[in-house]
């Protein structure tokens, strides 16, 4: 599979590095580095069951899906005080800026937050993190709290949290993630109906561990405007036609799909088939710290699988068009992209690396 940056021409690596990038599917907590969680655990006297940072980093490294869930559940226990979210949000801005990701839409695990914190206190902490991060690093991030499917009973509280945060200009949408199996969209219909009435954007993880039926449910029952992952839509030609006709964007995260076994390690990622069918796809990192990836690495992976730079650039433009950014933000980023394109030297079909 996957990825060997050393075999890519330096010119391509540099172009990916300096291209102004847009990311629509990344989790705040899943982007938080192991050392940050460890620092917070030390501060908050949380026992990770390890004796050193090195031991924690070794445990933190992805092994399989079950282990990923254990790491995630343990790591977020370190987020004990509202100001811890200020800290990791500011860190997240720094990380995105370092990759030249100029616009992001990032998920926050709201089902966990609303069980731990008083609404006013945590919203104030999030607002502080957004203010500090945007002023210091100059990138734009819109946050999308999500419902964890397995925590069904938190859904209405999450909706109220999102609506209040949206009024304060902190949140742009509501998402839903977590295990698809056993938690169908029907369980969350009333929650998403309330959000739609509040005219707040809706996205949904679907078509990852479950098939096309899950995507249909996210679209028809929840009213999703974009689908997180969605690669198993290929199992249903009628669904593919619907996605193309309605211009529904899929937020594709290749490394995540490989790591979780959704795509076999010796297979070419199905994003190529989706694009050839006319489906609008974007490239994303999902939980980059936990999967040892980054948005740039996702680009490198696809370059190794036969994509050329122009195709990746077009998906980047598609991400901006598919985003929930306001007109002013889209206009500013379009200018950045246009400037980059005028100065480009390698975004041509001749940069194809591996024949398809």
Q: Report the count of strand segments.
A: 8
Distance, first to last CA: 14 Å
**Given the structure, what is the number of helices?**
17
Mean of residue pLDDT values: 93
Largest sheet report: 8 strands, parallel
The CATH homologous superfamily is called Metal-dependent hydrolases
Strand order of the largest sheet: 1-2-3-4-5-6-7-8
Describe what this molecule looks like in 3D:
- The model is unreliable at 348-356 (pLDDT under 50).
- The protein has helices spanning 10-18, 28-31, 34-44, 53-60, 65-75, 82-98, 110-116, 119-137, 155-167, 189-197, 212-222, 237-246, 254-259, 271-276, 295-304, 309-322, 327-342, and strands spanning 21-27, 101-109, 140-148, 173-177, 201-206, 226-229, 249-252, 281-283.
- The protein is 51% helix and 13% strand.
- Helix 6 (82-98) runs parallel beside helix 8 and helix 9 packs parallel to helix 10 (189-197).
- Strand 6 (226-229), helix 12 and strand 7 (249-252) form a beta-alpha-beta unit.
- The chain has an 8-stranded parallel beta sheet with strand order 1-2-3-4-5-6-7-8.
- With 356 residues, the chain is α/β, with parallel strands linked by helices.
- The protein has one domain: TIM Barrel.
């Amino acid at each position: 599979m996957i990825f060997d940056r050393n075999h890519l021409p330096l010119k391509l690596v540099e172009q990916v590095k300096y291209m102004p990038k847009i990311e629509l599917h990344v989790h705040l907590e899943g982007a938080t580095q192991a050392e940050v969680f460890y620092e917070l655990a030390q501060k908050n006297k949380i026992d990770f069951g390890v004796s050193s940072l090195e031991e924690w980093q070794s445990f933190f490294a992805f092994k399989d899906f079950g282990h990923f869930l254990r790491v995630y559940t343990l790591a977020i226990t370190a987020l004990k005080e509202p100001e811890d979210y200020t800290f990791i949000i500011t860190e997240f801005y720094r990380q995105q800026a370092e990759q030249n990701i100029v616009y992001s839409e990032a998920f926050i695990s709201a089902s966990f937050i609303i069980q731990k914190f008083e609404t006013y206190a945590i919203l104030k902490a999030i607002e502080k993190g957004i203010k500090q991060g945007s002023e210091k690093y100059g990138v734009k991030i819109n946050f999308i709290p999500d419902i964890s499917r397995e925590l069904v009973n938190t859904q209405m509280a999450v909706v109220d949290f999102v609506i209040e945060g949206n009024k304060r200009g902190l949140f742009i949408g509501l998402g839903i993630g977590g295990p698809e199996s056993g938690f169908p969209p029907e369980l969350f219909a009333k929650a998403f109906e309330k959000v739609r009435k509040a005219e707040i954007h809706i996205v949904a993880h679907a078509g990852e561990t479950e098939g096309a039926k899950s995507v249909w449910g996210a679209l028809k029952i929840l009213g999703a405007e974009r689908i997180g992952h969605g690669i198993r839509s290929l199992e249903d030609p009628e669904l593919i036609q619907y996605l193309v006709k309605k211009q529904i964007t899929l937020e594709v995260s290749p490394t995540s799909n490989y790591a979780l076994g959704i795509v076999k390690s010796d297979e070419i990622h199905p994003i190529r088939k989706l694009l050839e069918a006319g489906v609008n796809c974007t490239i994303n990192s999902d939980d980059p710290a936990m999967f040892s990836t980054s948005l740039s690495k996702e680009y490198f992976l696809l370059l190794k699988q036969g994509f050329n730079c122009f195709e990746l650039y077009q998906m980047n433009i598609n991400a901006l068009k598919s985003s929930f950014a306001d007109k002013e933000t889209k206009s500013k980023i379009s200018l950045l992209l246009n400037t980059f394109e005028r100065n480009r030297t390698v975004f041509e079909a001749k940069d194809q690396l591996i024949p398809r």
